[in-house]
Write a structure and sequence with these properties.
By secondary structure, this protein is α/β, with parallel strands linked by helices. Helix content is about 55%, strand content about 10%. The longest helix has 25 residues.
């Protein structure tokens, strides 16, 4: 008898403007799914290590710009899709991409890049089966130069020495505004609705 073909995997996108909020929400979604017997994996930013390598280099030699960082994010996402997300989906798992496309676009908009260009750069990424904008905490705070926290915080670190000073609070406000408008336009889900959708999908697959 031939081996059973794995059920198709599902992709969940979790996005926000702060790394801590993304990690917290991804962990909660994963815990809720596992409590319902749904196997899942989390794909995180900088799985390729490219940002880590850039940060490890001499500060004086860094030639960075918001556009370069957006392209580097896209390259890292290609790596994640090839080596983390794609194989897990092929094995029938639920994958939580935390962050995914909208975080990169929102941060880029906050840094002054046009969203049309950012969306075009990231158009290779497959549409998620469900998406959620994580609750934003400390909404009045700007991005701190803490590259270990997430993509936005890494950008704040790398751009600290740029010729034009990065106004971190104003940039984050622009990013949040874009992300909130995006969630309204695309029908971003509340956590309980997202979990229910995944449970319903798995139930239909099991019934086939």
């Amino acid at each position: 008898m031939a081996a059973a073909t794995p059920a198709p995997g599902r992709l969940i996108a979790i996005d926000a403007t702060r790394g801590a909020d993304i990690r917290t929400e991804a962990a909660r979604v994963a815990d809720d799914l596992r409590a319902r017997g749904i196997d899942c994996a989390i794909s995180r930013w900088d799985a390729s290590g490219m940002f880590e390598d850039l940060l490890a280099g001499p500060v004086a030699g860094r030639q960075v710009s918001p556009r370069m960082l957006a392209l580097l994010y896209a390259a890292d996402l290609v790596f994640r899709l090839r080596w983390e997300i794609g194989p897990a989906l092929a094995a029938g798992r639920v994958v939580i991409a935390a962050p995914y496309v909208d975080t990169a676009v929102a941060v880029g908009v906050g840094l002054g890049l046009p969203d049309a260009w950012l969306l075009d750069v990231l158009r290779f990424a497959p549409m998620p089966d469900a998406a959620r904008a994580a609750p934003e905490r400390r909404r009045d705070a700007g991005w701190r130069p803490r590259p270990d926290r997430g993509y936005a915080e890494c950008c704040a670190t790398l751009l600290d020495g740029a010729p034009t000073a990065l106004r971190k609070r104003r940039a984050r406000r622009r990013a949040m505004a874009w992300l909130e408008a995006r969630a309204v336009a695309t029908g971003g889900l509340k956590r309980r609705h997202l979990i229910r959708r995944m449970v319903d999908i798995r139930r239909r697959v099991d019934e086939v």
